[in-house]
Every structure is written in structure tokens, then in C-alpha cells.
Amino acid sequence: MRVRIDKSELHGKVVVPPSKSYTIRSLMCAALTKGKSSIINPLLSDDTEAAGEALEKVGVKIDKNDGRWEVTGGRFHAPEGDIYCRDSAATLRFMAALSCIIPGKCRLVPSPQLAKRPIEPLMTALNTIKINCYWEDSALVVDEGRFLGGNVSMTGDVSSQFVSALLFLCPLAEIGLNIRLTTPPESAPYIEMTLGCLKEFGIDIIASPYLQFFTSDFRKYKPADYKVEGDWSTASYLLAAGAMTGRTEVTGLNLNSIQGDRTIINLLSKMGASISAKKDVITSGYSKLKPIRADLTDCIDLLPTIAVVAALANGQSRFYGIRRARFKESNRVTAIKEGLGKMQIEVTEDDDMLTINGGKPVGAIVDSFGDHRIAMAFSLLGAAVGDTVIEGAECVSKTYTHFWQTLESLGAKVESDV
Known about the structure:
Layout: E1 2-6, E2 11-15, H1 20-31, E3 35-40, H2 46-56, E4 61-65, E5 68-73, E6 83-84, H3 89-98, E7 106-109, H4 112-115, H5 120-128, E8 133-136, E9 139-142, E10 150-154, H6 160-169, E11 177-181, H7 188-200, E12 206-207, E13 213-215, E14 225-227, H8 232-245, E15 247-251, H9 264-270, E16 274-278, E17 281-285, E18 293-295, H10 303-311, E19 315-320, H11 332-342, E20 346-349, E21 353-358, E22 365-367, H12 372-385, E23 388-391, H13 403-409, E24 413-416
Parallel strand pairs: 2-15, 3-14, 6-7, 10-11, 18-19, 22-23
Antiparallel strand pairs: 1-23, 1-24, 3-5, 4-5, 7-9, 8-9, 11-13, 12-13, 15-17, 16-17, 19-21, 20-21
Helix pairs in contact: 1-2, 1-7, 2-3, 3-6, 6-7, 8-12, 10-12
């Protein structure tokens, strides 16, 4: 699918979709709980559907009603065939951990795109505690075994999801599970989100102050009514839209959220955007944008958003802590560099830094690389400068099924299948 965006002024009020990360985490917790839990305000997207379908394959019952999912968990059975994880890294990584307490052999099948993303550190950690985890053809296989637990050391600078996956298991180990990170964690807020979600389901993990050691006594998950808050990662596009082209109001966000991407309002404000917050309404308005220097270590998913904003800021912006962006749905460093290059913006790439010389971008045909965040970010720059085509635009359904309709509702001149 190709989408053309012509120059537009974006104005209006939008309710931000629910958090994908919290929806999937609460699904995992509910699946580990004996009895019925409710997930209120869940996100409907490709990734959350992948997580739900994976859990249903192993005996979890999910009744989906409007705005509420009833999840009956705690009784797993051997999977009925392969478990297809689509493009969802969280589903693959979390299910790899949960599979060690599921009867039989679990074959987790990633999409070709997902298969390129890292998972080896998690596999090594599981093998360390005597969980047989290996690749077989195109599937990640976890054999049935006795989950005793033990001591695990792993790196913290590849993906926080490896840590979160083990945290779901922490209270279930017969002899306890101690997790030690050999490097400081990156995207630490996502680990804190997992800890907070676990607590809602009765699990209190003991964590060191800098999140490099975790342990828990044997505990049982308790049923919960879990309400999913708004997604700050998704909100970043809606707020950037106002800062780049007009004025937007975004509702449904928790201003006290521990989501790392909440810092988007600080970044946009530092770049000169007019940002105000009142109760749960955040307003973002156009102003002359300034270049910025920022460390994105704990908010790496903001890189595409803030990169396209920097393209409009006259001067040099620098973004640090970007190494892991190469291992997302695409190599986002390459995707940003190529896309902005086509729009006549100079970009310099280093190992852990991206430099953008902002100015006057022009319209171009931009490849999304099948990456939802690249597609959404460049659509905003397309609205600012016009004459832009996004290739592979359907990939936004991974997290924001109605993104293009929302953009149109704000006044964007969008034409599909051009």
C-alpha cells in the first residue's frame, strides 16, 4: 500500500490509543493467573492480536468484548500446532519464557522480519537454568521440562524485553530465580512497566536501585481488573504533528506515567514547540523549531519521531544512545538516514549517535521498510512539506490500525494506493 501526503495543516483533538506494551504485559500476567482477570481498555492491533492468539493456543481463554477482555488463565495445555508470533517481538520473547511452564513442546514461529531481531541472550539465559531452547528450521523451540529456577546473568543493553520475559517467571521458580544484568539496562522504563504490571497481579519483585538485580520468593499470581493507560509512544506522532504543522490536542494520557516515551513533551518543548498540559489534555502547537541534543537511551522508540521534527529545525541536532534502533522492526538508523536523505536533509551516522542537519526538506518517495514507526513519522514530515509518498504504509496496523484515518481527521491530505 502506498499513501501520498500533500502539504497540510493539522488541527484537532484525538484520543490516544491504549498502550501496546501494557496490553501485552497484562495479557501475560492474566494468562499466568488461575481464575478470571479483566483487561480494560486494551489495544486492538496486530501485535496484541498475536499475543492473544499465542496464549489461546496453549489453553488461555480470552473473551473479547468492546473495551474489555475477560482472560481465564492458569491452566496451560500443550499447544495445538505451531504458535505464530507475527511481527511481535514482545510475543515471541515473552512466550519463549512462558513456554518453559507449558506442557509439551512449544514451537514459536516468527515472521521473516521478526526472525532477524535478536533473541539469543534470552535463549542463553533459559538454557542456563536447564530450559532446552533452540532453533529448529524457522521455529524457536522450547521443550517441556521442570522449571526449578536458579541464577541467570545476561546483558542489559540489547533489549529490555529479555529481562521482562524472565520477570514473568521469577515468582514461579521452585528454588527461586535470581536475575543479574552484566551491563546497565537500556530502555529501563519498560522494565519498570513490567514490574508495575506484575504488582497489579499480586507479584512483588525485589529489584536493586539501578535495575541490575532482581529476585522474588515463590508467589501466586492473583486475578486483577487491569486498566490499560494511553500509549505515549503513539502519542508522540500526534503531538509532533501539532508541533510541525498546526495545533493538536491529545487526550487519554497519564501525565504521571512511567512510560519512557512520556519525555516527548520535554523534547518537543526544548525544540521550541508550544506545549501545554491540563488534566489529561496535552496541546501541541506549531512554533519555529530549534535543533536539540538528546540522549534517547531510555526512549529509543522516539527516534523516528524526533528525527523528522529535527529535519525542520534549522541547525544541527544530535541524538545519542541510538545503537539499538538498528535492531527494531527495521534498521531504523538506516531507514531514517535514507528517508531524510531523499528529502534533501543531511544525516550522519555513528555507532551510537545520529546527527541531523535540519533545514528545508522536500517531498520524496519514502520506503517504510515495513516499520510502523518509520511510516508514521515520515507521514508527519510529508504533511509539513507535501508531495510525499510512503511505501508499505499498511505496516501501521502493528500498533495503530486507524492511523491514516486519524491523520485525515486532523486535516491531512491523504490519498491511498497511489
